[in-house]
Amino acid sequence: MRRASRQAWCEALAHTLTLAQGWAGRAQHRQPVARRPEAQRRDTPKKSLKELDIIHIDKQQYVFIFAAMKLKYNRILLKLSGEALMGNQEYGLDAKKLEEYAREIKKVFDLGCQVAIVIGGGNIFRGADAQAMGIERAHGDYMGMLATVINGMAIQGALEKLGITTRLLSAIKMEQICEPFIRRRAIRHLEKDRIVIFGAGTGNPFFTTDTAASLRAIEIDADVVLKGTRVNGIYSADPEKDANAVFYSNLNYNEVLVNRLNVMDMTAFTLCQENKLPIIVFNINEPDNLLRIVKGEAVGTLVQG
């Protein structure tokens, strides 16, 4: 069954309103006695749906604006690292960064794109560092999962401050603060125009949030995984350390493996490869980058095929 989308709904509504407005206009100007000369019988030219970008509807003193724009990606999964939420701080959350990311996400949401989000927890606690503290790795990973839920609540609050309805779904049950992850429920939330935030990773130790992002994207049938980073895409080396690093605009899965390029951990990457799920790595800190990607512009590095 094809999933419902805001874009398809907007286009159908726009088409219906165009027909209704045309009928109303003709009825209002109809001459009851004699037919007007041919030169005067000119209806307003009809616009195709492709030409119909924005429809304004006045009803009961409210103005509803529906954007009927064709998007390349109608359902996305956005992966953000916990470190991205720190801003210039060394730890925790930066309120300005949260607001900035929320506004960038709202831009694509307002176009009708269905958005799901996975956030890491490295700004609070990283499970991989637990052993250095004398904590068992599995125990540390569960601590890291809790950190991702804190970050999920933070981005949830920032989005709802902008008037967006959201749902936080956790792989570990925490009924007082979020819903348990149920695949069908997550998809239904997306279809009801709610941004879905996935917390607590996969709910299992030894798996990264990159793996959680790939897994959730496959489960909700996302069109693409968008990995927001501090750099412009994938390079032959770390561009922050090597000035001679070469930027790649397009790669296939085999090229990433052969050249041992750092895109995601191997488990996460293999999931995308086996399910033919495209990955785009881009700079999340550049304004409108997310918007441009959803519209189909070449931004960052695309990995597919």
Structural description of this entry:
By secondary structure, this protein is an alpha/beta fold. It has two domains: 6-67, no CATH class; 75-303, Carbamate kinase. The chain is 34% helix and 18% strand. It contains eight helices and 13 strands. It has helices spanning 6-28, 95-109, 137-161, 183-191, 209-219, 253-258, 266-274, 289-295, and strands spanning 54-59, 62-67, 75-80, 114-119, 166-170, 179-180, 195-199, 224-229, 234-235, 247-248, 250-251, 279-283, 301-303. The strands form three sheets. It has a nine-stranded mixed beta sheet, sandwiched between helices. Strands 1-2 form a two-stranded antiparallel sheet. Strands 9-10 form a two-stranded antiparallel sheet. Helix 2 packs across helix 3, helix 2 packs parallel to helix 8 (289-295) and helix 5 runs parallel beside helix 7 (266-274). The longest helix has 25 residues, at 137-161. The radius of gyration is 23 Å and the shape is globular.
What portion of the residues fall into strands of 2 or more residues?
A: 15-25%
Tell me the overall shape: globular
Helix content: 25-40%
List unreliable stretches of 5+ residues. Answer: 23-36, 38-68
Q: DSSP helix count?
A: 8
User: In the CATH hierarchy, what is the class of the largest domain?
Assistant: Alpha Beta
| Main beta-sheet annotation | 9 strands, mixed
Q: What's the arrangement of strands in the largest beta sheet?
A: 6-5-7-4-3-8-12-13-11
| End-to-end gap | 25 Å
Q: SSE string, helix = H, strand = E?
A: HEEEHEHEEHEHEEEEHHEHE
Give me the Rg, rounded.
23 Å
Mean pLDDT: 85
Count of all domains: 2
The H-level CATH homologous superfamily of the largest domain, spelled out, is Acetylglutamate kinase-like
CATH fold-level name of the largest domain = Carbamate kinase
Architecture of the largest domain, according to CATH?
3-Layer(aba) Sandwich
Secondary structural class: alpha/beta
